[in-house]
Amino acid sequence: MMQKEVVVYRAALLVPAESLQLHTDTVKAISKEVVRMRNDVHARFKKDPLSVNEGNSHSEYVTDLTMLLINSRDPAAIDGLAAVAPLALKDFGEAAVPTLVAVARMEPEDEVGHSADALDALGQILVGQGNLLLPNSKAAIRQVAAQRLESAKGNEQWRVLGEAAYLAVATGDPQLRKQVEDMVDNNAEFARRGMDKDSQDRVSQYARWALDKFR
């Protein structure tokens, strides 16, 4: 990153985020920096897992940059937020759908919880802004809900499955709704997925919430 850009976004951190209007080029620079720092942490972890366990010295800085991206409301922030805080993309609507779908499909996840957060964000966009979504976006949301409803396995993915169940019902697709209904409290189905009773109860609760809400 150019020195001028570094000065700009570091200076931006001194201004209250809610009162700051950033130029799109600055938002792009911040987004790229967030992605770069996240990739650096991943590379260090892959080389030496213990190095990251000692703490991420950039975490507070990345958090500040992330808040700038969230408050910018600029589509140029989408890639950076997808890397560190996909749930924040719920406020970006249609523009964020392709990126959220890609994050939701990640398997294995690059970050624990990111796929589930992406599914959660898609659900909030679909429910709150569904009338503004393009047909292709709605189709992509249905497809990723169906995919994760089928593929989520193991206790570590209980929330992925729960969010996928909620999203599947929210799409209004009758076939997906039937799949979710058949899954609720189904001991054999959760055993097939390698999930224990605790995970079964949590996922079934997500499913019941959706089935009750979207009648």
Description:
The chain is mainly α. The protein has 2 domains: 1-84, no CATH class; 86-215. The protein is built from 12 helices and no strands. It has helices at 3-12, 24-47, 49-53, 59-72, 78-84, 97-104, 114-129, 135-151, 158-170, 174-183, 187-192, 197-213. Helix 2 (24-47) runs antiparallel to helix 4, helix 2 (24-47) packs parallel to helix 5 and helix 7 runs parallel beside helix 9. The longest helix is centred in the first third of the chain and has 24 residues, at 24-47. The radius of gyration is 19 Å and the shape is globular. The termini are far apart.
Task: Describe the protein's topology.
Blueprint (H helix, E strand, L loop, with lengths): L2 H10 L11 H24 L1 H5 L5 H14 L5 H7 L12 H8 L9 H16 L5 H17 L6 H13 L3 H10 L3 H6 L4 H17 L2
Q: What's the tally of helices?
A: 12
Class by helix and strand content? Answer: mainly alpha
Oligomer: single chain
Question: How helix-rich are the residues, as a percent range?
Answer: 55-70%
- Shape, principal axes of CA atoms: globular
Per DSSP E runs of 2 or more residues, the count of β-strands stands at: 0
Mean pLDDT: 88
Gap between N and C termini: 51 Å
- Radius of gyration from the alpha-carbon trace, in angstroms: 19 Å
The main sheet comes to:
none
Beta-strand percentage range? under 5%
Please mark out the parts with pLDDT under 50 across 5 or more consecutive residues, or reply none. Answer: 1-5
Q: How many independent structural domains?
A: 2
The secondary-structure element order is: HHHHHHHHHHHH
